[in-house]
Amino acid sequence: MSQLLDFDPELLRKYDVRGPRYTSYPTAPQFSEALGEAEYREVARRAAETDLPLSLYVHVPFCRTVCFYCGCNKVITANYRRATDYLDRLAREMAMQGALVGAREVTQLHFGGGTPTYLNDADLRRVMDDLRRHFNLVESTSREFSIEIDPRTAGPDKIRLLAALGFNRMSLGVQDFDPDVQRAVNRVQSVAQTAAALEAGRDAGFGSTNVDLIYGLPRQTVDTFARTLDTVVEMRPERLAVYSYAHLPQMFKVQRQIDEAALPGAEQKLALLELTINRLSEAGYVYIGMDHFALPDDELAVAQREGSLQRNFQGYSTQAELDLVALGVSGIGLVGDTYAQNARVLDDYARRIDAGRLAIVKGVSLNADDKLRRDLIQSLMCQGRIDRLRLQARHAIRFDDYFADALERLEPMVDDGLLTVGGDAIEVTPRGRLFLRNIAMSFDAYLQPADPGRYSRAI
Ligand code: SF4
Question: What's the whole-model pTM score?
Answer without folding.
Answer: 0.94
